[in-house]
Specification:
alpha/beta; six-stranded mixed beta sheet; globular; five-stranded mixed beta sheet
C-alpha cells in the first residue's frame, strides 16, 4: 500500500521459500505464496516468470480445492490479469469471466473478491473499446467497495479512478472531473503522495486538464506523475512507460515536437525492452512517433514508423476478431481505426511530396482498403447461415438460443421502463447472455475463423479478376490529420494491364458533404436539371475512364448517398448511366473471391399493400403521446396506405409466374412481420411498402440507450400493424422490421432482396464501413444483392421500374444489366432523376 513493491517482492519470495520447506511445494499455502509473488512481479513489470508461477498455483488449487472453489477462481483472475497485461486479450477474457462467475457463486455478489473481478473485467473491456459494459461493471464494483469499506480505501479509489478514466475516453469530462478530485483526496489519506496509485490519479487528472484546454496544469501534473512513478516503481516499469507516452502525447498536442520526439523515443525503447515488439502498447508508441514526423512533413521517418504499426494493427484484427461479438468488434475497431485513417492521410501526403513514389503508395493504399474497408460487414457476412448448415448440433443449438434472445430483446427495447419492471424483464442480463452466445458462436465456428485465417487479398488479385473495358474503384474518405476540419476524398482505380492503381483526388470534401450535396438533393426533390454535380462528383473520375464501360465501385462517406447514374453532363447532354454500367460493391475485394452460386429455387416471397392500421378506426390508444404514424415521420394520424404497391406486387407475381417461378404473395393483413420472419429459402424477396430512417430520433425518456445509439434500430420497413399501438395488437410483433431484425433473418439461399420503398438505402454513414441500415443487414443475413432507394420515391414510377427490371432479368439479361436497362427506359419516359434514379443495386 505504501508503494514499496520491491521490498514486498523480496519478503514474499522469502515467505515462498519458507512455506515450501515447511508445508511442501504441493501445499495450498505454497500455491498462494506463489500466486502472491506472481502478482507482485506483474506490478513491478517483471513478467518473465509470471506465467509459469501462475500455472503452478492453478494446478495446486485445482488438485486441493477443486475447480469450483473461490481459491481456484482467484487464481484464474490472476491469470486473466496476466494475459491482459501482456496484450493477449483473447485469452484474458475467458479467465476473467469464469473467475467472476465462480467467485459470485461461491462467495456471493457482495464480497470484495467479486468486486475486484468486476474491476478487472471492466479494464479489459475498456481496452477493447467496450465502454458500455465496462461502465456497468465499474459502477457495480464501486458500490460494493463503498458498502464494505466506505470511501476512504484503496479499492474504492481504484474503482472510482477507473470509472473516471472511462468517462474521459467517452468524452464525458463533466462526469470525470469530480471523480478524479475525489480519488486524489482518498489516495492522499490512504497512502500519501509518494505512491504509484497517486501518480496514476495525477495522470488521469492531467489528461482531463489537457482536454479542457488547461495546458499548464496538464503539463505540471504529468511531470509530477512521471517523477513519482520513477521513484516508486522504477524507470523500467510498464506504468512509467505509460506515463512517458502520455507526456509525449501532451507535447505533441502542444506542438512541441522536439520534446514530443524525445519522449516518444524513450517510450518506444522502454516498451520494446519490457513488453516486446508484439505488445499493443509498443505499437501505440510507434504510432505516436510516426505522428510527430507526419506533423512535421518528415515523410521518410514517418514511413519508417507507420508501416510496422499498420501491420501490427491488422494482425490484431485477425487475432482478436474471431473471439468477439459484433458489438465488441465494432467497439474495438473504432479504437484502432484512427491509426488506419492517419496512415491513409500520410500515404497521400507522401506521394504528393515524392511523385516518384506514386505507384508504391497507391498500392499500399489499395491493399489497406482491401483489408479494412467494410471489415465489420465482412466479419459477419453469411456466417450464421453457415452455422446452421454445419451439421454441428451443439453449434446449432447455441445459434437457435441466440436468435431467440435477440427476438426477445427487440420486443423489450420497445417497452417502457414501467412495462419491463412489471414483467420483471432483465434487459441487461439478456444483452449480456446474447453477447456471450454470439462470442461462443464466433469461437466455435470454423466458418467464421476461416474469414480471417486466409491470406489477405491484394490489389493484384483484384486486377486479375477484371476484363478489358472494366475498372475497379475504391473511394476513400480521408480527414487531414494535422489540419482541423479538413476532409478530402480519393479514388483508387484499377484497370487491366496497368502497373498499379491510379489515384484521383477530390480536395474539397467538406463542400461535397454539405453545400454541394444539399444542392444536389434539392434538384432531385424539386425535379430540376442539375448541371453542377457532375463536375464535382464525377468529373475527377471521368478523366481517367477512357475505354472503360463497366465499373465495380466501392463508395465511402457522402458518395454512399449519391447515385452516380443520375448525374448529368451539361457539355455532352448525357447522363453517367448513358456511358457506364456501374456495379456497386461493399469492397472490391469481392471481385476475386469465390462467389456463391445462386440457389435457382425459382421461388419468391412478395410483400406489399400492407394494412398498416389493421382496419381499426382508432389506432391511437388514449395513453399514447402521439400516433405511431407520427413516430415514423408521417403528418397524419394514420400511416397512409400505398395503393400502387398492390398493383406492383400483383404484376411482379404475374411476371414471375410466366417464367415458372413459385411465389408466395402477402398483402393487406397477411403482409406481417411474422410472415416475413418465416420466409425460408426464397431466391427473391420483394418488399413494397414504406421505408424509414430516423436520423434525428425523437425518443421519449423511457427509450433505452441501445435504441438511441444503434442505427440498426432506426431504419427499417413498415408492415401490417405498424400503425397500431401495442395495447391494441394481437401479435407480439410490432409490424416494424428494423435493420437489427433483418440482420437475423436466414437468407443464405436468397439471391436478391428488393426494397421497393422510400429511402431504404439510407442509414448512418460510418466511414470505411458503409451505410449502417437495411442494405447492410440483408447482406449480413446472407443475401447476394440488395436493390434499394436513396430518396423518397414516386410509387407509380417505382411500380413501372420494377416491372421493367423483372421482365428484363427473367428474360435472360444479367441482373445488373437488366436493372440498368430498366432505368434507361424509365429515363426516356421521365426526364427527372427523381422518377428513375432513386434505386441502386449493391452486390455482384
Amino acid at each position: 500500500a505504501q508503494g514499496q513493491l520491491s521490498t514486498a517482492r523480496e519478503l514474499t519470495y522469502k515467505a515462498l521459500v519458507a512455506t515450501g520447506s515447511i508445508n511442501g511445494k504441493s501445499s495450498l499455502a505454497y500455491g498462494m505464496a506463489l500466486e502472491n509473488l506472481a502478482l507482485l512481479r506483474m506490478r513491478l513489470g517483471d513478467m518473465t516468470p509470471v506465467k509459469s508461477e501462475l500455472d503452478s498455483s492453478l494446478f495446486i488449487y485445482k488438485a486441493i480445492t477443486g475447480p469450483s472453489s473461490a481459491v481456484y477462481a482467484q487464481g484464474m483472475l490472476s491469470m486473466g490479469r496476466y494475459y491482459q497485461i501482456t496484450g493477449d486479450y483473447t485469452k484474458s477474457e475467458p479467465y476473467l469471466k469464469d473467475a467472476r462467475d465462480l467467485i459470485k457463486s461461491s462467495l456471493g455478489p457482495q464480497c470484495a473478491q467479486y468486486a475486484a473481478s468486476l474491476n478487472s473485467l471492466a479494464l479489459l473491456y475498456q481496452i477493447l473499446g467496450n465502454y458500455r459494459d465496462a461502465g456497468q461493471l465499474l459502477q457495480e464494483a464501486r458500490i460494493i467497495f463503498e458498502k464494505l469499506y466506505g470511501k476512504v480505501n484503496s479499492e474504492y479509489s481504484t474503482a472510482t479512478q477507473n470509472l473516471a478514466a472511462l468517462y474521459q475516453l467517452q468524452g464525458q469530462l463533466e462526469l470525470a472531473e469530480p471523480l478524479l478530485k475525489e480519488v486524489l483526496e482518498v489516495d492522499m489519506k490512504v497512502s500519501g503522495e509518494n505512491n504509484p496509485a497517486y501518480a496514476i490519479s495525477l495522470q488521469n487528472l492531467a489528461t482531463l486538464y489537457q482536454k479542457l484546454g488547461k495546458k499548464q496544469e496538464a503539463g505540471e501534473a504529468l511531470s509530477r506523475a512521471l517523477s513519482l512513478t520513477k521513484a516508486t516503481l522504477g524507470p523500467e516499469h510498464p506504468s512509467y512507460a505509460t506515463t512517458l507516452s502520455n507526456l509525449a502525447a501532451f507535447y505533441q498536442d502542444k506542438g512541441d515536437f522536439i520534446q514530443a520526439e524525445k519522449t516518444w523515443r524513450e517510450s518506444v525503447d522502454l516498451r520494446k525492452k519490457i513488453l516486446g515488439v508484439s505488445h499493443p502498447d509498443y505499437a501505440r508508441s510507434l504510432f505516436g512517433l510516426a505522428g510527430v514526423y507526419h506533423a512535421q512533413s518528415q515523410w521518410e521517418k514517418a514511413k519508417e514508423y507507420y508501416e510496422p504499426v499498420v501491420s501490427e494493427y491488422q494482425k490484431q484484427v485477425r487475432n482478436f476478431f474471431p473471439s468477439m461479438s459484433e458489438k465488441e468488434k465494432g467497439a474495438f475497431y473504432a479504437k484502432i481505426k484512427p491509426v488506419f485513417d492517419s496512415y491513409q492521410d500520410f500515404c497521400v501526403q507522401y506521394l504528393h511530396a515524392n511523385p516518384a513514389s506514386r505507384s508504391e503508395m497507391s498500392m499500399k493504399l489499395y491493399d489497406l482498403q482491401l483489408s479494412t474497408k467494410a471489415i465489420l460487414l465482412n466479419a459477419s457476412n453469411k456466417v450464421r447461415s453457415r452455422i446452421m448448415g454445419s451439421g454441428d448440433a451443439e453449434l446449432q443449438s447455441i445459434f437457435v438460443e441466440w436468435l431467440s434472445l435477440k427476438e426477445q430483446m427487440v420486443r423489450y427495447y420497445n417497452y417502457t421502463q414501467e412495462e419491463r419492471a412489471r414483467l420483471s424483464v432483465d434487459l441487461p442480463g439478456l444483452e449480456a447472455r446474447a453477447n456471450d452466445l454470439e462470442k461462443l458462436l464466433s469461437q466455435k465456428s470454423d466458418a467464421f475463423k476461416s474469414q480471417f485465417d486466409k491470406e489477405e487479398t491484394t490489389w493484384q488479385e483484384v486486377q486479375k479478376s477484371l476484363h478489358e473495358g472494366e475498372s475497379a474503384i475504391e473511394i476513400v474518405r480521408i480527414r487531414k490529420k494535422y489540419v482541423s476540419d479538413s476532409v478530402y476524398y480519393i479514388a483508387l482505380m484499377l484497370r487491366p494491364g496497368t502497373p498499379g492503381p491510379e489515384i484521383m483526388v477530390w480536395p474539397k470534401g467538406i463542400q461535397l458533404e454539405t453545400r454541394l450535396f444539399k444542392f444536389h438533393r434539392n434538384t432531385i426533390k424539386y425535379h430540376l436539371r442539375d448541371t453542377t454535380s457532375y463536375r464535382y462528383y464525377w468529373q475527377p473520375l471521368n478523366e481517367k475512364l477512357s475505354g472503360v464501360r463497366t465499373i465495380y465501385l466501392s463508395c465511402d462517406g457522402v458518395f454512399n448517398k449519391v447515385n452516380f447514374n443520375s448525374l448529368y453532363n451539361a457539355s455532352t447532354n448525357r447522363w453517367v448511366i448513358d456511358d457506364f454500367t456501374i456495379r456497386l460493391v461493399s469492397n472490391t475485394r469481392e471481385l476475386p473471391e469465390e462467389r456463391r452460386a445462386t440457389s435457382y429455387t425459382k421461388s419468391a416471397a412478395i410483400f406489399g399493400f400492407a394494412d398498416f392500421n389493421m382496419d381499426l378506426p382508432n389506432v391511437q390508444s388514449s395513453s399514447a403521446k402521439r400516433s405511431m404514424a407520427r413516430v415514423y415521420g408521417f403528418d397524419e394520424e394514420q400511416i397512409p396506405m400505398l395503393p400502387a404497391t398492390e398493383k406492383e406486387v400483383d404484376q411482379v407475381e404475374k411476371i414471375l409466374a410466366s417464367k415458372q417461378w413459385a411465389s408466395q404473395i402477402f398483402k393487406k393483413l397477411d403482409a406481417t412481420e411474422e410472415n416475413m420472419k418465416k420466409v425460408d429459402g426464397a431466391e427473391v424477396i420483394h418488399i413494397a411498402t414504406h421505408g424509414f430512417f430516423l436520423s434525428d430520433v425523437d425518443i421519449n425518456e423511457n427509450e433505452t440507450n441501445e435504441f438511441l445509439s444503434n442505427p440498426l434500430f432506426r431504419s427499417g420497413v413498415l408492415l401490417a400493424g405498424a400503425g397500431v399501438e401495442r395495447s391494441l395488437r394481437k401479435s407480439q410483433e410490432d409490424g416494424v422490421l428494423t435493420a437489427y431484425e433483418a440482420m437475423n433473418l436466414n437468407l443464405d439461399k436468397t439471391d436478391l432482396v428488393v426494397l421497393s420503398a422510400c429511402e431504404t438505402g439510407l442509414g448512418e454513414i460510418r466511414n470505411g464501413e458503409g451505410v449502417y441500415g437495411l442494405q447492410r443487414s440483408f447482406l449480413v443475413a446472407g443475401a447476394n444483392s440488395v436493390l434499394m432507394s436513396l430518396w423518397q420515391v414516386d410509387d407509380v414510377a417505382t411500380q413501372e421500374l420494377m416491372n421493367l427490371f423483372y421482365s428484363h432479368w427473367l428474360g435472360g439479361l444479367e441482373r445488373n444489366e437488366a436493372f440498368r436497362k430498366a432505368q434507361l427506359a424509365m429515363k426516356e419516359k421521365y426526364d427527372a432523376p427523381y422518377f428513375w434514379g432513386a434505386f441502386v443495386l449493391i452486390g455482384l
